[in-house]
User: What shape does this take?
Amino acid sequence: MEMMQLDLIARVCGTPTPAVWPSVIKLPLWHTLKAKKTYRRRLREDFTFLPPAALDLLDKMLELDPEKRITAADALKSAWLRNIEPER
Assistant: This one.
């Protein structure tokens, strides 16, 4: 089941490789995972129906490399969420 989930993530976000996520090789069992196919990131192509600000935020939230991924605090400041008032 996990391999199917990893494959689905790779199809949208691209296959994790050291080129896009240098520390991926430090993950436990990294060397035991063999992708059947290498996928390029196609998130922006698959979600063209989203408004640009929403797509920008989604792209940043689904960044494979955690070092490059947007933080929750920065996501709340994004153009897409800027005018939303949190429930009190």
Q: What stands out?
A: The longest helix spans residues 2-13.
